[in-house]
Write a structure and sequence with these properties.
This protein is α+β, with helices and mostly antiparallel strands. It has helices at 5-26, 44-60, 90-94, 164-174, 187-193, 207-219, 246-256, and strands at 33-35, 41-43, 65-68, 72-74, 80-88, 101-108, 111-119, 124-129, 133-136, 139-141, 153-156, 179-182, 199-202, 223-225, 240-243. α1 (5-26) runs antiparallel to α2 (44-60). The radius of gyration is 17 Å and the shape is globular. InterPro entries: His_9_proposed, Inositol_monoP_metal-BS, Inositol_monoP_superfamily, Inositol_monophosphatase-like.
Length: 258
């Protein structure tokens, strides 16, 4: 394993470029839609984009592992693993909404060292690198300084993603916030990194849904864990709290577990 952090960023940008080129070719066109085993829709664009990303990784870092949504895991025992979601927000994609994106996370051991949220339709690329901060299209971004749930702006993708008990917990928390919003898929995490959202709370996620955003948010100064406050990894349970500050994170976690 010899790639520097700068090389990782360059590779991640190439992956995002390749995924965007294929995805945008199919966006707002008639699509062949398949229902996967977990009942989420997948398109041919989704699969083709991940194939293109894997081909780049095979050329540039062939010893690295890959955890992708569409084509499964490879070499997860490797010291460095790329976690890929070529089209996060497939339902947004197939309904013509612009709020879908490409997610890329790089795990070094158990730590996320780089995270990308790329929004091809919006032409926004959010990148976070451990120790280097976060950017949107090359400009530095940072989370807000919100420390109080009562002042917080909270977002989640949809009430439909929650099991009944988890929904009760989220509803209890979100009704104590200053504002709650639904929708946006992965864009909510980018908004948090940019300081316009203070909390994202979700459940039922997979590693390719949360590890890229986690790398971005942590680099932007935020806090991301599971609902028990544990660091996120490949074996997390899919419940995520992302918060602008440690104080806000502690409050949110306490309310969720009340």
């Amino acid at each position: 394993m010899s790639s520097s952090t700068a090389d990782l960023s360059s590779i991640a940008q190439a992956l995002a470029d390749a995924a965007a080129a294929l995805s945008m070719r199919h966006f707002r066109t008639p699509l062949d839609i398949i229902t996967k085993a977990d009942e989420s829709p997948v398109t041919l664009a989704d699969r083709a984009a991940e194939t293109a990303m894997r081909e780049i990784l095979a050329r540039r870092v062939p010893a690295d592992g890959i955890y992708g949504e569409e084509h499964g895991p490879e070499r997860l025992e490797a010291e460095r693993v790329w976690v890929l979601d070529p089209i996060d927000g497939t339902r947004s994609f197939i309904t013509g909404s612009p709020l879908w994106g490409t997610l890329i996370g790089v795990l070094q051991g158990s730590r996320v060292v780089l995270g990308v949220v790329d929004m091809p339709v919006l032409k926004e690329r959010w990148i976070g690198e451990a120790g280097k901060g976060a950017t949107r299209d090359g400009q530095p971004v940072h989370v807000s300084n919100c420390t109080d749930v009562a002042q917080a702006r909270i977002v989640t993708t949809s009430p439909d993603i929650f099991a009944p008990a988890d929904w009760q917990a989220f509803d209890r928390l979100s009704r104590q916030c200053a504002m709650r919003r639904f929708g946006g898929d992965c864009y909510g995490y980018a908004q948090l990194a940019g300081g316009t959202i203070d909390l994202v709370v979700e459940t039922g996620l997979q590693p390719y849904d949360y590890l890229g955003p986690a790398g971005l948010i942590e680099a932007a100064g935020g806090v991301v864990t599971d609902w028990q406050g544990q660091p996120l990894g490949l074996k997390s349970d899919g419940r995520v709290i992302a918060a602008a500050t440690p104080e806000l994170h502690r409050q949110a976690m306490a309310i969720l577990s009340a």
